[in-house]
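User:
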Amino acid sequence: MARLDVAKSGINDKFRHVEIVLYLSQPVPYRVFTLDDPKRLVIDFRDVDFRGVDAASYARSDWILSALFGMLRPGWSRMILDLEDPVRVEQAGMKVSLVDGTARIKVVLRATSQADFVSAVGAPNDPDWAFKMMSDPNSVALQNPNRPLIIVIDPGHGGIDPGAEYAGVKEANIMLALALELAAALGRIEGVQPAITRSNDTFLALQERLTLARGAKADLFISLHADALEGVQATGASVYTLTDIAALGASQRMAERHERGDILAGVDLRGQGDQVAIVLQDLLRVETAAASDRFANQLVQAMRVTGAVLNSRPRREAALAVLQAADFPSVLLEVGFLSNEVDRARLNSPQGRAPIVAAVTLAVGRWAIEEAALAPLIRQ
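Assistant: Predicted structure:
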């Protein structure tokens, strides 16, 4: 649950507009809209702790008559401001601190006509928000509510394979630090259990990483890397999923390179030929590939919310061996370019990595709720 910093938050009357500024202990999904009869401004949040807030202090404005804070439904909170006159929402945005991961939501209101106010009232028609509201974020699980959602984090490279190296900064070390920070953040979410393929500077073959994820009964696999390009000053993060063309041959490669008991979680294919293994993988991949795409899209959106630096083309596909498993969704997150001095400095500090940690955490929560809402529609 995010906490409202009651000392720093409040409402300020400005010249011809009013600013609502809310400081939260962490970023959360939120939405802003107006309602009529009576005139109200509504802000919904994913679980915010409003304890200690002085509602009367939010009415010390020429624009606001009264304020109400409380629970909308389990896991969701609502703030309601009764309005003196019709207003329009000129600006609504969230910024996440690179230093401590706290978030600031700022909403700017300006006067408008009654006709324009009435035409704009009502909650936005947002299917993504509907997905968020359909499940309690404290009990997320893809298919089985009796066990936690297992997120396997795979820090790329390690040991004899240091990955990219610039100015003494090794990709393997940065990815391990990021993976440990991610595991700590995800571990604070009730109903989510993180796992890491390596917790020290150890070499793991690509197939071993998939084997470890399968042994952990992964619901989602996130591989972490940093790119490097000679002579090109590219910057920012990208999220990869497996290409459709690569997926066509992935089942064959898995059948050739893995033991029969290590191709699909919970399925013993010992004694079966390649064709059986390939067909079963292809059937599963129809659903896991779609889930991978959904998480990748959520992650790009979340990185925009938390202020993480994105590449000019943040959503990509590639034929990557580490994404070839058919029995769990998987993405590869390239967090930036070590060949870029600015990216390298940012990725080499916990403060610089904080927006990435916040984005992955936010995306996991959003994705889990989306998958839970879709679960009844998925073929059993």
